[in-house]
Amino acid sequence: xxxxxxxxxxxxxxxxxxxxxxxxxxxxxxxxxxxxxxxxxxxxxxxxxxxxxxxxxxxxxxxxxxxxxxxxxxxxxxxxxxxxxxxxxxxxxxxxxxxxxxxxxxxxxxxxxxxxxxxxxxxxxxxxxxxxxxxxxxxxxxxxxxxxxxxxxxxxxxxxxxxxxxxxxxxxxxxxxxxxxxxxxxxxxxxxxxxxxxxxxxxxxxxxxxxxxxxxxxxxxxxxxxxxxxxxxxxxxxxxxxxxxxxxxxxxxxxxxxxxxxxxxxxxxxxxxxxxxxxxxxxxxxxxxxxxxxxxxxxxxxxxxxxxxxxxxxxxxxx
Length: 319
Hints:
Blueprint: H1 10-14, E1 40-44, H2 47-57, E2 61-65, H3 80-87, E3 91-94, H4 100-108, E4 113-116, H5 127-130, H6 156-173, H7 178-202, E5 210-213, H8 219-224, E6 228-231, H9 243-256, E7 260-263, H10 270-279, E8 282-285, H11 301-316
Helix pairs in contact: 2-6, 6-7, 7-11
């Protein structure tokens, strides 16, 4: 089992168990092709991990994703075939305490290289502030990190820290291609730093600093750029908010100049529309980027993040 730590670069090294060289071939593959390719076989848990593996690994990796596009990652249950692909891989890249079925499979897997993205940056507990989505993870076992907000990829700065750790882990596990992994990581981190600057500058001067969302996924993003996320807390995405909660949000909207209720792409917009109808607010999409579908406002992480920035600028009255 890998040890969870907080610092970089030692976190990256701690996230990878001691290796000589990765077994690039010779694993018994399954129907999915994992383990029997000539490439460095990486299994990723869901889209933000897949994106890192593909961008950092480039032509040297074969990436298999456990969560299909459009699937809510929190609800994932692994099939025997998926567990088999995990066991036959050279490395697994996942985010502990987000998907219990993945955590369990990784813990039981013989894979040499287990990279926990949550160990490569710092996590916080936003559940106490918004009482919302992060609280869903409180019941997961696993000690340090349990109950923390897992949505680190929505903060470009934390995501860049994770990218650096993943790059170091790939270099160690597949040293023959270390130079390319280092180069690809540096390029990705540079792009993430540029995205951070776009958010920082784009949200520096807004009429309001408060936004309302159905999904409490944006705590890190809000914290990074001086905003306040008001989540419709303690609610199933499909359920309707209580009259008392609607009144609270109506007061918040009036006091803080809120114009918009945000919803996400992978669940129903019913809650957002109910709130909007009762408060006279607009609705718009703020995408937690847990998966890319035909309904996403862009084909990759950067495009959707820029769409999120545009939506926030419009809702908050950027000057």
